[in-house]
Amino acid sequence: MEKNIPSIIKNINKLLKSVVIMFFVFQGTLNAITSNTNVVSRVKGSVIDAITEEPIDFAPVSLKNRPNVGTMTDENGNFTLLIKDSSNIIVVSCVGYKTIETKIQVGTLQRLTIKMEPEIEALNAVIVKPKKVKYKNKNNPAVELIQKVIENKSLNRKEGLDFYAFEKYEKLQISLTDYNENLRKNKLFKSFQFVFDNVDTFSIPGKKILPFFLKETIASDFYKKSDVKTTEVPHAEKMVSFDEYVNKKSISQALQFLYQDINIYDNNIFLLSNQFLSPIASVGPTFYKYFIIDTSFVGKSKCIKLSFFPRNKTDLLFQGNIYILLDSTYAVKKIEMSVNKDINLNWVKELFIEQEFEKIENQGWMVNQDNISIDFGVSEMGTGFFGQRSVTYKNYQFDINKSDSIIAAINNPANKERDDLSEVFWNKHRFQALTLPEQRLYGIIDSLKKVPAFKIEMDAITLIASGFIGSRNLFEIGPVNTFYSYNPIEGSRLQFGGRTTNLLSKKINFETYGAYALADQKYKYYGRLAYSFTPNSIFDFPLKNITISYQDDIKIPGEELQFAQENNFLFSFKRGINDKMYYNKTFKLEHLNEFESHFSYMIGYEFTKEIPTGNLFYNPVNYLDKTYNIGSLNVSQININLRYAPNESFLQGKIYRSPIVNKYPVFQLQYSLGNNIIGNSYNYQKLIFNVSKRFYFSFLGYTDVQLETGKVFGQVSYPLLDIHRANETYAYQSNSYNLMNFLEFVSDKYAALNAQHSFNGFFLNKIPVVRKLKLREIITIKVLYGNLSNTNNPDLQSGLYKLPIDNFGRPLTYSFGNMPYMEAGVGVSNIFKLFRLDYVQRLTYLNHPNISKSGLRVGLNFDF
User: Fold this and answer.
1) How many CB atoms lie within 10 A of CB 661?
2) Could you tell me if 748 and 722 are in contact, meaning their C-beta atoms sit under 8 angstroms apart?
3) pLDDT class for 243, splitting at 50, 70, 90?
4) How far apart (Å, rounded) are the C-alpha atoms in residues 118 and 95?
5) 555 neighbors 580 (Cβ within 8 angstroms)
6) Given 3-state DSSP classes, what are the helix, strand and coil percentages for the chain, each rounded to the nearest 5?
7) Contact 441, 212 (CB under 8 A)
8) Cα angle, residue 430 at apex, residues 426 and 435 outer, rounded to 5°
9) From the centroid of its chain, how far is CA 441?
10) Distance of alpha carbon 261 from alpha carbon 372, whole angstroms
11) Is the pLDDT of residue 745 over 60?
12) Are 614 and 488 spatial neighbours (Cβ–Cβ below 8 Å)?
């Protein structure tokens, strides 16, 4: 045994030396080659130790006789390799193991488990194996190289130029994927089997995809440094249309949200409502590991191939390869990247991004090809959706002296967007040809929409999504979730209504409902007529319309519903005592005007006659009878609402449009004037200012912050004060106080802070068992401080209405003392990818009667 010790030590030193050398040459992963029509084979696999069956990380996987084409296993020993030629042998090698060659089948998707045998020297049961070397940034040539890339970003990114303009062609295809023949045999699809004849078996090896949506766009972009923004001018658009069921503009906006432009030179990259840290961000070496793989040619450019992957595989980071020019510019020639399957990202099976850059007119390296592919699905296996966006760029122009004439030509009305262009035009102006399944798609969808069974099934889907029945008719019925509801004053309430559709008129829309309550035995009704001053629907941005409406119904003071219909069945379930309401007869006349800049104004007149009911009374303090009730209160006011939401986009629904939250602030100013000259019971003015913004912290999540302040000028009774938004349902409402009772607090001036931070699973995703659930942590804090001046305090002013009290004479409505109202919460979202559960704790004013000091609230939360 002693004779063998020098041999053992010699072999250990040899192995360690090899590991250190290979550490700087081989590691990382290449999962990010974008799937396209040139791909022939696709291999997904894992590499493990044949003896211990432990995964082998950072093992090079390449093509035989083509070592520059390949990838590397990740920290779990997994790899994905896309092969764009007829090569059929892959080679796996790693220091300390025997090299393995494996033959693959061309043109298929294969899953392999490769077992590598250690090159070991066994001496009396002593096994010598290679050891891992701790990764360090110091004296690491890969890190030194990426630092050079980071230092030269300002010189290489296109935003460093004074001016540029270019043309681009964008193609976006959505397909059904991973489906089996049982789906085709399903009775639901019996009447349109011809759709399945357009299956594409070539674009993704080993997968059948069935295209059902295609959108093509030809546009021009220009950037002028003095304007500090990029402007896109679309010239032509062609897309598969489902106008009878889904708003065309809404589809475009939703797809634009899913497939946004990506600039790798930005520190942070916004993708699927999350912010990812770029691999060439200024702080990239703190969160990424980098490894020099080899030199490689991209086209005619010689580059250094650099692999990168997250230090923590659960963080919102990318992994892949960067090809860096082997010259003094340190510019990125090409990048391929994907995301790790362990990150907390919903609905995404796989995601691939590929960008390639080209040097043009000695101006710098400009992107000439941009591809992003996303494979969506509820789970790793089973039917899903595959979407691929390909953008090709050409005709770059840089002459700042000609910028005005270039921009004028781009903005020429003759070049405005059109969707009625012939196929001859598209065949001539497409930058890349369509595949055969794509060519057939337009005609197939046109035929599909004529099939009666398809129309019936789409009606069912529309009902589930929007709550309306009969979207293909002149008048649609709904929303169905308001047909029945309950509250203590009305008891069971039956309601029926609907509205006209665009088939009757795009410019005119009429909406109505009628209701009857069994307890109070009263009829309620509503009618609204809207007219659009644009050629588009009254729901399409930018809105320019006038509406007139009348409503006779019941309300709860201080209740505000976010994106929900009044009398929704789900809001029938409330905590506490809900016996303070008022009947209102409201007439409104409003004009809304939105601009392309996303500034808007609304000016209108409103008259409401409020009649308190239940345990709500309008009685002045100088009346001794506590139950004396003034018959009604007249609220007649002029309203002006100014709103500015730069770069805002929407997901347009049938009932409302939902803004897509981005990094830009939203400002809103509301002004109301009430005067007895126009029939009001009081003279007053109201002013409310609100600003909200989302702050992103890369993989640490994001914070939504909302600041609001308001003031009432003049002397008014409490129904005209600021009645602060309360929530007595068990549903979590972001913009309301979830443990405040209705009508609990009033003020004539106030300031409020509402902050919520979502960690996007940063902590929970690091717990071995819990991380499989992909839960996300949330913390919230809401602070409201107000004041009731002596002018509007009914204890100091006779003639003002008394603040509400309960049957025992205890006050139920309060002004603020010397402390703010506060509530805080911790929660978990992404439960089954759809729900959130919050534990909310009330922190102040705990001595008020009939309050909840804490509670669980459930909310719906759909996000990526």
Assistant:
1) 16
2) yes
3) low
4) 9
5) no
6) 15, 45, 40
7) yes
8) 95
9) 28
10) 9
11) yes
12) yes
DSSP-derived secondary structure letter, 661: P
- Residue 822's DSSP bridge partners are 783
Q: What is the largest CA-CA distance in the chain?
A: 111
Residue type for position 369: Q
Three-state SS sequence of 428-480: HHCCCCCCHHHHHHHHHHHHHCCCHHHHHHHHHHHHHHHCCECCCCCEEECCH
Burial of 369 (0-12, 13-18, 19+ CB in 10 A): middle
**Poorest-pLDDT segment among 188-192, 219-223, 643-647, 842-846:** 188-192
Residue 340 CA to residue 351 CA, distance in Å, equals 9
Tell me the Cα Rg of the chain: 32
Gap between the Cα atoms of 459 and 486, Å rounded: 28
Place 424 in a pLDDT band, splitting at 50, 70 and 90.
Answer: confident
153/263 Cα distance (integer angstroms): 12
Place of tokens 């000091």: 853
Quick check: bond before 820 cis, omega within 30?
no
d(CA 637, CA 588) in angstroms, rounded, equals 10
Q: Per residue in 367-406, pLDDT tens?
A: 989 999 888 876 666 677 888 899 999 889 888 888 888 8
Residue listed under structure tokens 């296996």? 381
184 vs 200: CA distance, rounded Å: 15
User: Which residues are CB-contacts of 243 (< 8 A; sequence separation ≥ 6)?
Assistant: none
Residue 479 preceded by cis peptide, ω within 30: yes
Q: CB 607: neighbour CB atoms within 10 A?
A: 17
Label residue 40 by pLDDT band (50, 70, 90).
Answer: low
Full 3-state SS string of 74-135:
CCCCEEEEEECCCCCEEEECCCCECCEEEECCCCCEEEEEEEECECCCCECCECCCCCCCCC
As a whole number of angstroms, the distance between CA 840 and CA 732 comes to 9
C-beta separation of 93 from 79 below 8 A: no
DSSP 35: P
Q: String of b and e for 215-228 (b: at least 16 CB within 10 Å)?
A: bbbbbbbbbbeeee
pLDDT at residue 73 in the model: 81
The amino acid present at 615, given as its one-letter code, is N
Q: Are strands 41-49 and 109-116 parallel, antiparallel or unpaired?
A: parallel
Buried-exposed string 117-150: b where 16+ CB fall within 10 A, e elsewhere = ebbbeeeeeeebebeeeeeeeeebebbebbbebb
Return phi, psi of residue 242, to 5°. -125, 45
Length of the chain: 864
Helix (H) or strand (E) holding 550: strand 544-555
Q: What are the two backbone dihedrals, phi and then psi, of residue 10, each rounded to the nearest 5 degrees?
A: -60, -45
| Whole-angstrom distance, CA of residue 174 vs CA of residue 215 | 9
Amino acid at 254: A
Tell me the domains of the chain and their CATH numbers. Answer: 2-134 (2.60.40.1120), 164-262+372-466 (no CATH), 474-635 (no CATH), 682-864 (no CATH)
3-class DSSP assignment, residue 778: strand
Q: Give residue 150's pLDDT.
A: 94
Return the structure tokens found at 777.
């942590």
Which two three-digit tokens encode residue 93? 């090698």
Distance (Å, rounded) from C-alpha 686 to C-alpha 545? 25
Per-residue pLDDT of 549-600, as tens digits, reads 999 999 888 776 544 456 676 667 777 778 888 899 999 999 999 998 999 9
> What is the spatial distance between Cα 418 and Cα 646, in angstroms, rounded to a whole number?
26
| Three-class DSSP category at 286 | helix
Angstrom CA distances, 566 to 479, 515, 538, 728, 797, stand at: 10, 12, 21, 15, 35
